[in-house]
Every structure is written in C-alpha cells, then in structure tokens.
Fold:
Amino acid sequence: MRLFTVHAEPPPPPGPEGWPEPKARPPVLVREGFSLAAAILGFLWFAWNRLWWEALGLLALTLAAGWLLPDPYGGVAVLALHVLAGFEARDRLRARLARRGQPLAAVVAAPDREIAWFRLMQQRPDLVRTAP
Structure:
C-alpha cells in the first residue's frame, strides 16, 4: 500500500444569490516516499514541478561539489546530493502546495493513484465537485 496526501483549498464562501457558485482548484494527490525521478533528474525534476529555488539550490550545490572537491569526493558528494533530493522532493512539493493555499486535507492509502482517487471520493465527498 502506498500513502497519498491530498491537498485542497478550503471551499470558497457562497456568492450572492443567483450568481454561479465559485469554483475551487481541484485537489492534488502527492505520493509519499522516495522520488526516483527527482534523484535521477535532480534539477530538471524540481524545475518541472516549479520548485525554482530548490532547483537553483541543487544546481548550485552540485556544481560547487563537482568543481571544488577533489576527484573521488566530488562524485560521492554529487551522488549524496541527488539521493537527498530524492528523499526531500515530495516534501518540498507539499510545502509549495501549502504556500499556494492548498494545505493538507486528507491522507489516502491505496495501491495506485486511480484507486486513491476513488477512496478519496468515498472518504471526502465534499471534494467531488472540484475533482478533475
């Protein structure tokens, strides 16, 4: 079983009578655990997920480790940075979602993303209207 965290913004207040109901952004599911794509791709994964500061920080640390450390230690340091990026990537993604106004709303356990969506809709039917 995998754990998925669900990030959704609180429901918007109702508008005046007769106006259409305001729409909220759809919830986002983020898988818990190590991100192999972030460990392998590093800077590109962070940039793809619009984590600009993290991408620049990883790029700067990788370049500094590669240039400033002696030959055997530079490779080990770059490898360690990418492993650390793999462990930290999804937490940084959750933090970005919280900053954008989509805090943690629920946690769902499921073997894959499709079943996680199904279980989310069973647990939190209030999110059904904003689902993609």
